[in-house]
């Protein structure tokens, strides 16, 4: 039998590509132990580090030893994937690690797809979907807060909150379904206030979980902020001040910035993707025109727009807005006016409450008002500083929580309208289905495919 016909054993290099101290080839599936025996000569005791030569059985005697290092064997089901897993920890060079991997593949494994180890861990019940996603989020974390949140989700903090909601929802469903079965007593069942009370309590808890999850999404993804305005208003100066470094060139010459510049910063754990753009005006210059076109494209995609105006030149927010955007931008993102150069204009630095859109006076030169701008950015994102109860979450989870909330609301309406118990039961079933999508109880293959495809290979 051709061993490579066995589709169930997967292998991949689990360490980052390039040179390093150690390179790990990971194998999972029914042939893992046999492959290990072929390469190392024996199967070491499970979960014991075993120093061995890694031999290629198909090579001639002089070239047989391709590396040496630590072999680890995790016997099913006590492994990450729940299957037999082998790790060959050799020297971390791209060529030597690849030699080991190729040898493993020749012995009957096939290359793993991105995320396939985690997918198997999920399918074998070693972790739920939200936890599996947290692994990818932990690896991709751009800030310390994001990493801490992802670790909490991986440990099950998010899943535990979802399970808590699920248990209550299931208990409520049982109660309502029972009222259908005993239909003569149906009116009493639903009208005694118990169902309504529990539904509302569930709705409140769901809102609390959603708030924390939304913060988790913010910590993971951040918000995109575009700085735009007329030439010379101080856009690049504000970007540099927010970033704390001289990323953009600043000069007194209007039209200094011509291309789109990007900077990543974090305000108390909230990632901000800041985009500095060319000053908007009617320019005959072809390069500037292209810069302005790009600026407008970024504005359309942004989560928030900071309209920078030069308050010392007497620019009025409404006037600038009309001039720059009235014809060409039917749909602007939410925006804040930043009245820059308040050191020259004499405006009091800080947030000026009561104006629409909100306006903040700052000086990129002296730093006055910048703290207020940072605080404002946090507030408008709806971000709260990360606390110990937080966890990482994704947009997908928020959508599922929202659909669950809609289903519960529909249930509350049905109850208030004295609709048939069957209708309420149907809404509750729908709500449970939505929650189940988060942890993967009700996920379609299609969804799973999309989620795990975004992982890295070897994870
Ligand atoms: N006094 C004062 N000068 C400032 C302030 N902010 C920026 N400037 C000056 O204004 C000029 C233009 O600043 P930039 O940051 O290059 O302005 P910009 O909006 O990026 O300009 P373009 O890229 O040309 O569109 C520079 O000479 C800055 O030093 C401020 O708050 N106070
Ligand atoms: Mg500039």
Features:
Rossmann fold, binds magnesium ion, 17% strand, flat, 16 helices, 459 residues, Four Helix Bundle (Hemerythrin (Met), subunit A), 3 domains, 7-stranded mixed β-sheet, binds guanosine-5'-triphosphate, disordered N terminus, Gyrase A, domain 2, 6-stranded mixed β-sheet, alpha/beta, 13 strands
Describe the structure.
This protein is α/β, with parallel strands linked by helices and 459 residues long. The protein folds into 3 domains: 3-112, Probable tRNA modification gtpase trme, domain 1 (Gyrase A, domain 2, 2-Layer Sandwich), CATH 3.30.1360; 144-218 and 390-453, Four Helix Bundle (Hemerythrin (Met), subunit A) (Up-down Bundle); 223-380, Rossmann fold. It contains 16 helices and 13 strands. A hairpin with a 6-residue loop joins strand 12 (350-352) and strand 13. The model is unreliable at 1-6 (pLDDT under 50). Guanosine-5'-triphosphate (GTP) is lined by residues 231-237, 250-252, 254-257, 278-279, 340-341, 343-344, 363-365. Guanosine-5'-triphosphate is lined by residues 231-237, 250-252, 254-257, 278-279, 340-341, 343-344, 363-365.
The gross shape turns out to be flat
Strand content: 15-25%
- The tally of strands reads 13
- By CATH reckoning, the class of the largest domain would read Alpha Beta
Range of helix content: 40-55%
Largest sheet: 7 strands, mixed
Write the layout of secondary structure elements.
Elements: E1 10-13, E2 20-28, H1 32-40, E3 50-55, E4 65-74, E5 85-92, H2 94-106, E6 110-111, H3 116-123, H4 129-140, H5 144-154, H6 157-181, H7 186-191, H8 194-221, E7 223-229, H9 235-243, E8 261-267, E9 270-276, H10 286-301, E10 304-310, H11 317-325, E11 335-340, H12 342-345, E12 350-352, E13 359-361, H13 370-380, H14 395-416, H15 421-439, H16 445-453
Parallel strand pairs: 1-6, 7-9, 7-10, 10-11, 11-13
Antiparallel strand pairs: 1-2, 2-5, 3-4, 4-5, 8-9, 12-13
Helix pairs in contact: 4-5, 6-8, 6-15, 8-14, 14-15
The chain binds guanosine-5'-triphosphate and magnesium ion.
């Amino acid at each position: 039998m051709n061993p490579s016909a066995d589709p169930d054993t997967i292998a991949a290099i689990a360490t980052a590509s390039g040179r390093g101290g150690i390179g790990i080839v990971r194998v999972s599936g029914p042939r893992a132990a046999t492959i290990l025996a072929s390469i190392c000569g024996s199967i070491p005791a499970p979960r014991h580090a075993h120093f061995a030569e890694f031999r290629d059985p198909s090579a001639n005697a002089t070239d047989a030893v391709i590396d040496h290092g630590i072999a680890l064997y995790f016997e099913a089901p006590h492994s990450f994937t729940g299957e037999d897993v082998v790790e060959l920890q050799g020297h971390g060079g791209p060529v030597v690690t690849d030699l080991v991997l190729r040898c493993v593949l020749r012995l009957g494994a096939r290359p793993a797809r991105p995320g396939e180890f985690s997918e198997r861990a999920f399918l074998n019940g070693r972790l739920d979907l939200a936890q599996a996603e947290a692994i990818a989020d932990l690896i991709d974390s751009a800030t310390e807060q994001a990493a801490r949140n992802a670790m909490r989700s991986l440990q099950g903090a998010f899943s535990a909150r979802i399970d808590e909601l699920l248990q209550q929802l299931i208990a409520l469903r049982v109660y309502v379904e029972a009222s259908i079965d005993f239909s003569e007593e149906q009116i009493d069942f639903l009208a005694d206030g118990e169902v309504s009370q529990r539904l509302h309590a569930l709705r409140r808890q769901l809102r609390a979980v959603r708030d924390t999850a939304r913060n988790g999404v913010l910590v993971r993804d951040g918000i995109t902020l575009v700085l735009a305005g007329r030439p010379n208003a101080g856009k690049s100066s504000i970007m540099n001040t927010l970033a704390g470094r001289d990323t953009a060139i600043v000069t007194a010459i209007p039209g200094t910035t011509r291309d789109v510049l990007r900077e990543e910063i974090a305000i108390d754990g909230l990632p901000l993707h800041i985009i500095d753009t060319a000053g908007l005006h009617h320019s005959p210059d072809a390069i500037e025109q292209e810069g302005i076109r790009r600026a407008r494209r970024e504005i359309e995609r942004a989560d928030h727009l900071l309209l920078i105006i030069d308050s010392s030149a007497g620019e009025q927010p409404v006037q600038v807005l009309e001039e720059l955007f009235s014809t060409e931008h039917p749909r602007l993102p939410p925006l804040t006016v930043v009245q820059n150069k308040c050191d020259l204009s004499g405006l009091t630095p800080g947030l000026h409450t009561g104006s629409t859109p909100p306006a903040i006076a700052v000086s990129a030169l002296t730093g006055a008002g910048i703290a207020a701008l940072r605080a404002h950015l946090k507030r408008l994102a709806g971000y709260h500083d990360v606390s110990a109860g937080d966890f990482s979450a994704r947009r997908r989870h928020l959508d599922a929580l929202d659909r669950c909330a809609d289903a519960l609301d529909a249930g509350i309406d049905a109850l208030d309208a004295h609709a048939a118990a069957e209708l309420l039961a149907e809404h509750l079933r729908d709500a449970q289905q939505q929650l189940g999508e988060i942890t993967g109880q009700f996920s379609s293959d299609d969804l799973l495919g999309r989620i795990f495809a975004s992982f890295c290979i070897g994870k």
